[in-house]
């Protein structure tokens, strides 16, 4: 069951977004980083554009192809995230490790529709995560109408989040350029 922070301390986030600081401890973080030193990262291309972050996919990737089994070092973290989300660990069919070098952003997006719950764990340094209402490509609203972020929070090292409900379907999110090296581990369930 997902525990929520009390009212005054609850971050200003969309409905269905759950956040927990200190989800893992420092020694867990160090062990993950040590294991990740052996991971082969690659460039990530989405819709013909090469992103500035580097990635490593495991399980079922965006195009529904197998990307290799989840490495052993991710299994305990996946189990912990699944327990928090209230699902079986195997429900998280995909894992993605992102490497954000200084100055690297991730643009506005909503995760691919074949995924349901999105869970992330932040490592090494902080970043900001911003949200704005999603506007479908078929929307009749002028494409030139500027949209502003409606929610923002700081993801601290060793924290975790879950995106469910409206935060997953009615909003898109992005990470502005990071100041320092940062890693994130993202798990996704399939619809």
Please tell me about this protein's structure.
Helix content is 14%, strand content 38%. The chain has a 7-stranded antiparallel beta sheet. The chain has a 4-stranded antiparallel beta sheet with strand order 5-10-7-8. The mean pLDDT is 87.
The ordered string of helix (H) and strand (E) elements is: EHEEHEEEEEEHEE
Radius of gyration: 16 Å
* Count of DSSP-assigned helices: 3
Shape: globular
Helical content band: 10-25%
Overall pLDDT level = 87
Indicate the proportion of strand residues.
35-45%
Question: What is the terminal-to-terminal distance?
Answer: 20 Å
Low-confidence stretches: none
Structural class of the helix and strand makeup? mainly beta
Largest sheet: number of strands, sense, barrel closure? 7 strands, antiparallel
DSSP summary, beta strand count: 11
Order of neighbouring strands in the sheet with most strands: 1-9-6-11-4-3-2
Short descriptors:
191 residues, mainly beta, 7-stranded antiparallel β-sheet, 4-stranded antiparallel β-sheet, 3 helices, globular
Secondary structure blueprint with pairings:
Blueprint: E1 17-20, H1 26-36, E2 42-46, E3 49-59, H2 75-85, E4 92-100, E5 106-109, E6 115-123, E7 127-133, E8 151-155, E9 160-163, H3 165-169, E10 171-175, E11 182-190
Antiparallel strand pairs: 1-9, 2-3, 3-4, 4-11, 5-10, 6-9, 6-11, 7-8, 7-10
